[in-house]
Amino acid sequence: MSPRTTNDEDLEVWIDQDLCTGDGICAQYVPEVFELDVDGLAYVKSEQDELLQAPGATTRFALDLLTDVVDSVKECPGECIHVRRVSDGVEVYGPEAAD
Ligand code: SF4
Fold first, then answer.
1. Could you say which residues form the signal peptide (predicted)?
2. Domains in the chain: boundaries
3. What is the 29 CA–ligand 1 centroid distance (Å)?
4. Torsion-angle region of residue 55: left (phi > 0), alpha (psi -120 to 50) or beta?
């Protein structure tokens, strides 16, 4: 796996499990970042490939995964995948992102 980003343009992603339908689209698109847990909901994974089972946990991801992560945001039927800048917390992709 390529190294994850480490500068002011760092992005992190989190899932609102309250809205997740459990269809698994995100895990199909980006298995490096998303995974379904035994509860049937999607969670993000750490840089060490560990499933982060706390609701709303965030993780950074490599920029070469950005297209796939953004596709997941667009296809997510629960509209519950959020991508934000680490530096200021502004959501750049997701239901709360500016058009
Ligand atoms: S695509 Fe969205 S609704 Fe579907 S499993 Fe992933 S986070 Fe949940």
1. none
2. 7-93
3. 10
4. beta
Question: Would you call 91 exposed, middle or buried from its count of C-beta atoms within 10 A (0-12, 13-18, 19+)?
Answer: middle
- Provide the whole-model pTM: 0.91
Ligand 1: distance of its center to the CA of 4 in Å? 22
- Site to probe by mutation for ligand 1, drawn from 33, 59, 80 as the one with most ligand atoms within 8 Å of Cβ, is 80
CATH domain 7-93 topology:
Alpha-Beta Plaits (3.30.70)
Residue-wise pLDDT for 4-36, tens only, equals 545 668 999 999 999 999 999 999 999 999 999
